[in-house]
Design brief:
The complex is a heterodimer of chains A (92) and B (116). In chain A, 26% of the residues lie in helices and 24% in strands. With 92 residues, chain A is of the alpha/beta class. Chain B has 116 residues and is α/β, with parallel strands linked by helices. Chain B has one domain (5-115): DsrEFH-like (Hypothetical Protein Ychn, Chain: A). A five-stranded parallel β-sheet of chain B has the order 4-3-2-1-5. The longest helix of chain B is centred in the first third of the chain and has 14 residues, at 18-31. Classes of the chains: A alpha/beta (92), B alpha/beta (116). Chain B: Pfam families: DsrE.
Amino acid sequence: MSTLHVLSHSPFTDTRLDSCLRICGAEDAILLCGDGAYGLQNAALQGKGVKVFVLAEDSQARNLPLPDWADSVDYPGFVQLCVDYDKVNTWL
Amino acid sequence: MSKSLLVISRQAPWSGPSAREALDIVLAGGAFDLPIGLLFMDDGVFQLASDQNARAVQQKDLGANLQALELFGIDDVFACNHSLEVRGLNAPASAQGLGSDAIAHLLDRYDQVITL
């Protein structure tokens, strides 16, 4: 069973990303949106082997370069991810 | 067969409504006999600390709600070992301690997850 973890808080002021990475399964993926997009600047995500997506408009709004270990999705892509994974865990 | 639900409670008890609301979701699910689990992690493990005094901050005690879990048939109550350790808390009697890998597998066991 795969889980899509949705994170919308900056990892620099908050522990959600750290906790998420600790319990992330091999088939899981992380979608960064809102201030969660700042996760692209966070070394913690790099080299973890977990799939990372970012909502395009949020990374563009913040002028965050897209690293080669992350993929950009638009809103229809976001919806498709929610369908593709068995469940969605939003870290409210 | 109803879908199973895991509620992850990760907020401290007196900082806002999240802790109580997570418990309410679980108790409501239990009342309807849904297959439901509860995991305390991050600051959520502070809810399990003993001898808290909610009245000192003009709040209602969460302890009664925690004790009601068993009454409502909620047996799957877990706590994140890492979160307990870094906060200097002992493993509580009311929850089963789990390591990070075990939690990853726990998520796999449920159809849906709500994190508050």
